[in-house]
């Protein structure tokens, strides 16, 4: 990410990089993310943190801020999918990608977010846009301003155990992944089980038939709600 290089060159915490379009963006596992000019909010945020626990909750804080910004501006209900998607129903409306940075004296997180405002991706993609859902959409800058306002008070919670617990509870309450039977692709293996919660490091807790697994990374597929098991 461009802000990661700027941080290494001395860029200060709180920097925001906003772009109008994306022709070769990358998501998780190097998936391509393309957006025509003016169709999406595309930005990166640089936030210095005090340790890995605080860092683990920065992407969740951004996701919550984006969710509430969208809901406050538009007549839309947004759910969160662990670890990095915002959904309307079962369709993806936004994605988040983060990078943890460390040098000899500082630590930071760069969070990139893309929100589909008027473009929902290629035909037959498993995505949607705000405009497709409600018939209108805010401008990228209006949404960014609302997102940053929502984010500001959540960042104050990152440096204390009680604050991170408050963020964890808020995140869990918005997380549609919980209560689902899920498959979590960890790269070299796939974990299948019930998504039960989020631990103190932001890891997804999955109860398999044999054990409880704490997943810190992975692509999640929602198989079915837990209430449907055995039906």
Summarize the entry for a quick read.
Strand 6 (85-88) and strand 7 form a beta hairpin. The protein is globular and about 50 Å long. It is built from six helices and 13 strands.
Largest β-sheet summary? 6 strands, antiparallel
Task: Name the CATH homologous superfamily of the largest domain.
Answer: Bira Bifunctional Protein, Domain 2
Mean pLDDT figure: 90
How are the strands ordered across the major sheet? Answer: 1-4-8-7-6-5
Radius of gyration from CA coordinates: 17 Å
Q: How many discrete domains?
A: 2
Which blocks of ≥5 consecutive residues have pLDDT under 50? none
The first-level CATH class of the largest domain is given as Alpha Beta
Please explain how this structure is put together.
By secondary structure, this protein is of the alpha+beta class. It has two domains: 2-174, BirA Bifunctional Protein, domain 2 (2-Layer Sandwich); 180-228, SH3 type barrels. 27% of the residues lie in helices and 35% in strands. The chain has a six-stranded antiparallel beta sheet, sandwiched between helices. Helix 3 (58-73) crosses helix 5 (140-155). The longest helix is centred in the N-terminal third of the chain and has 16 residues, at 58-73. The radius of gyration is 17 Å and the shape is globular. The model has no long low-confidence stretch (mean pLDDT 90).
């Amino acid at each position: 990410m461009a802000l990661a290089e700027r941080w290494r060159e001395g860029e200060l915490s709180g920097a925001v990089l906003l772009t109008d379009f994306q022709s070769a963006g990358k998501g998780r596992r190097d998936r391509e993310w393309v957006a025509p000019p003016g169709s999406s909010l595309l930005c990166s945020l640089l936030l210095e943190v005090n340790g890995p626990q605080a860092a683990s909750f920065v992407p969740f804080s951004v996701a919550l801020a984006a969710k509430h910004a969208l809901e406050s501006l538009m007549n839309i209900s947004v759910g969160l999918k662990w670890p990095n998607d915002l959904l309307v129903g079962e369709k993806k409306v936004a994605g988040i990608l983060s990078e943890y940075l460390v040098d000899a004296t500082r630590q930071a997180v760069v969070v990139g977010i893309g929100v589909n405002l008027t473009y929902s991706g290629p035909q037959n993609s498993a995505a949607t846009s705000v405009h497709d859902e409600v018939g209108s959409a805010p401008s990228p800058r209006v949404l960014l301003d609302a997102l940053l306002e929502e984010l500001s008070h959540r960042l104050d919670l990152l440096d204390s155990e009680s604050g991170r617990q408050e963020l964890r509870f808020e995140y869990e309450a918005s997380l549609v992944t919980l209560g689902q039977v899920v498959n979590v692709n960890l790269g070299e293996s796939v974990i299948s089980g019930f998504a039960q919660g989020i631990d103190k490091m932001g890891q997804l807790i999955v109860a398999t038939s044999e054990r409880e697994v704490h997943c810190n990374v992975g692509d999640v597929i929602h198989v079915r709600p837990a209430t449907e098991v055995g039906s």
